[in-house]
Amino acid sequence: MAERGPALDVVAIGNALVDVLSHTTDEFVSSRGMAKGSMQLVDETTARALYQAMGPGVEISGGSAANTVVGVASFGGRAHYVGKVRDDQLGEVFAHDLRSTGVGYTTRAATSGPSTGRCLILITPDAQRTMHTFLGASARLGPEDVDAELIARGNILYLEGYLFDPPEAQEAFRVAAGIAHAAKRKVSLTLSDPFCVDRHRAAFLDLVKHHVDVLFANEAEVCALYQTDFDAALEAVRGHCEIAALTRSARGSVVVAHGKAHPIDARPVKAVVDTTGAGDLYASGFLFGLSRGLDLPACGRLGSIAAAEVISHVGARPQQSLAALSAGR
Amino acid sequence: MAERGPALDVVAIGNALVDVLSHTTDEFVSSRGMAKGSMQLVDETTARALYQAMGPGVEISGGSAANTVVGVASFGGRAHYVGKVRDDQLGEVFAHDLRSTGVGYTTRAATSGPSTGRCLILITPDAQRTMHTFLGASARLGPEDVDAELIARGNILYLEGYLFDPPEAQEAFRVAAGIAHAAKRKVSLTLSDPFCVDRHRAAFLDLVKHHVDVLFANEAEVCALYQTDFDAALEAVRGHCEIAALTRSARGSVVVAHGKAHPIDARPVKAVVDTTGAGDLYASGFLFGLSRGLDLPACGRLGSIAAAEVISHVGARPQQSLAALSAGR
Fold first, then answer.
1. Is A97 an 8 Å CB contact of chain B?
2. Is residue B9 within 8 Å of residue B157, measured between CB atoms?
3. pLDDT tops 80 at residue B68
4. CA distance A63 to chain B (A)
5. Which residue of B has its CA nearest to A118?
6. What is residue A3's predicted lDDT score, i.e. its pLDDT?
7. pTM of the predicted model, to two decimals?
């Protein structure tokens, strides 16, 4: 049990991963038969073989929902993270980096089994990232790691679609959503990745129709969910969720709610360096705004500010104070 | 024993470290009583306490001499590294990052004792770095790790002054220098850090006078060695070493050899982001040029090119091909 404490803006559950970022060429990505821009799950052997073949890396704590709560904290919000590492060096790095930003993190590290999960991220010259994830210890997250009192303290519960990959985590996901709704909290979900949607379409459709209040998806993901084009997907989702925030890269985002669609501009950036974390950080701004009672276009604008910051440098966590950036806009 | 193989441009011996880089404020550095810009040795307890107190980090393979051989490889040179990690995750990261750049690395990892060494690097807004090093497994490097055949294959043996901190490594240092001279190879040394010079002044003076052919030092280090000002230090060193390359930050460097002093300009950079590795990379260009028979001003210019590249981004290893940069100058 987490200690009783003040209300939280966001409690997030996700796969706890350390990113290994490496610059590479289009040729290297295509020579290995990867779909550029996607995330692929790999076992430890495949992850090792890719690591051997790739260039020097930089290790930075990652994990989609973890990046999001770091963003929430950077806006000045109160956030807590639930996700599993092992009691190894990379697990220690993950926990340190999260806590040092002010995010609460109390999930017990695994003391046996696979090592802390890693996401090998290849950055091509067009700033796209192609990801290979070895889930490792993150797949050991289970319902026993979900602390009911903690979930009930969060205005919004945020769940990443990637959690549907490990079966035990899927169960933790459902338990947490049930607790949040029972406590009259909002449940939000990000679809994470079009291939992830393909893997779990029926389950995601059921969730979106019946259990999700706030949905985050990019164009490819929402189209994959409904197996149609963007306009038709937008029509479909407005009947299913209270709020849907659909991101479209440089074309900004569309927030759909209560029968209305609000187009939100992307924030211009000098140079797109690495798109890793763009969606995660968009969600951080949006959730922070929502928790603090801002109107939907304002929530979307905070999302755009956070996304613009994170694509301007390598790595998926903000390097500047998002509170200062949003105050100065 | 390393396998017999072709001649190498540079064989380097150093403390094998993973850097943990974190942006911080001047206040944080001064509140902990640190001397900005210096390197301080710390034990594991102190390293842990500092890590707890500091912000989120980025892990990048480092180690002064390791950075230098990565630079040599980036110029298109052949290089080998000798330094000790443990058989842990950070040790694996260190070995991967080195080998993936083409540097040979065959030192056996320790299977017991302290974990892979770490250097906690605080980067202040002025791009200065203040370093706290927990030597860990790197201090276990000993004479038994020095492979005579490998040393004899290198045109130049490069030793970092930091090696004088762990006593066993100091012994490895002396053994390697003896082998190199017996094989009629050049022995080069970098003084590493003014505090390191203070710790080992008598030993360094003896080495410089009697055993070092090529000396690298920045202004503070060479002044610390001779306990005098730069001009007097320059006079002193010209009588002691065949070649001395003395770096002066934005004012470039002075190469002293055979009674002549060659001033070398620094390469202008758009913005100095992080000075970590500036001296290490200067040495890489200089050593590569020297091994390939370039004249001394040309060696210095390659040093300036490499240093300019590495201070333009976070981290102490080149992100662009130094071969391409030097071809395009």
1. yes
2. no
3. yes
4. 14
5. B89
6. 47
7. 0.92
Which amino acid is it at B36? K
| In contact, B176 and B146? CB cutoff 8 Å | yes
Of A54, A89, A317, the CB nearest to B56: A317
- Closest Cβ–Cβ partner in B56, B88, B97 for A89: B88
Enter the DSSP assignment of B139. G
Q: Write the residue in A23, A97, A115 that is nearest to B57 by C-beta.
A: A97
To the nearest whole Å, the CA of B120 is away from the closest chain A CA by 13
Compare CB distances from A93 to B59, B116, B319 and report the shortest one's residue: B59
CA angle B109–A132–B108, rounded 5-degree value: 5
Helix orientation angle between B89-99 and A89-99, rounded to the nearest 10 degrees: 100
A239-258: b (≥16 Cβ within 10 Å) or e: ebbebbbbbbbeebbbbbbe
Using DSSP, state whether A268 is helix, strand or coil: coil
Substitution target from A89, A310, A312, A313 for chain B, most B beta carbons within 10 A: A89
A 176-215 residues with CB < 8 A to B: none
> Residue B111 carries which DSSP code?
S
C-alpha B50: how far from its chain's center? 24
Band (A98; pLDDT cuts 50, 70, 90):
very high
Model pLDDT for residues A112-134, shown as the tens digit of each residue: 999 999 999 999 999 889 999 99
Interface contacts A/B by beta carbons within 8 Å: 56
A90 touches chain B (CB under 8 A): yes
Least CB-CB distance to A100: which of B55, B61, B317? B55
Residues of A within 8 A of B315 (CB-CB) are 58
CATH architecture of the region B8-16+63-113+142-327? 3-Layer(aba) Sandwich (3.40)
Q: Domain A8-16+63-112+142-327 class?
A: alpha beta
Would you kindly state where each structural domain of chain A is located, as residue ranges? 8-16+63-112+142-327
Alpha-carbon Rg of chain A, whole angstroms? 18
| Alpha-carbon Rg for chain B in angstroms | 18
B74/chain A closest Cα distance in angstroms: 12
Segment B98-132, tens digit of pLDDT: 999 999 999 999 999 999 999 999 999 998 899 99
Highest mean pLDDT: which of B5-9, B167-171, B261-265? Answer: B261-265
Q: pLDDT value at position B291?
A: 98
Query: Is the CB of B57 inside 8 Å of chain A's CB atoms?
Result: yes
A137 at the B interface (CB within 8 A)? no
Q: What is the pLDDT of residues A140-194, one digit of tens each?
A: 999 999 999 999 999 999 999 999 888 888 889 899 999 999 999 999 999 998 9
Q: Which residue of A has its CA nearest to B62?
A: A58
Give phi and psi for A3, each to the nearest 5: -65, 150
Looking up tokens 């070092």, which residue turns up?
B212
pLDDT tens figures, A281-314: 999 999 999 999 999 999 999 999 999 999 999 8
pLDDT at B167: 84
On whether the CB atoms of residues B20 and B59 are closer than 8 A, the answer is: yes
Q: Identify whether the C-beta of residue A144 lies closer than 8 Å to the C-beta of residue A1.
A: no
Encoded tokens for A112 = 């046996």
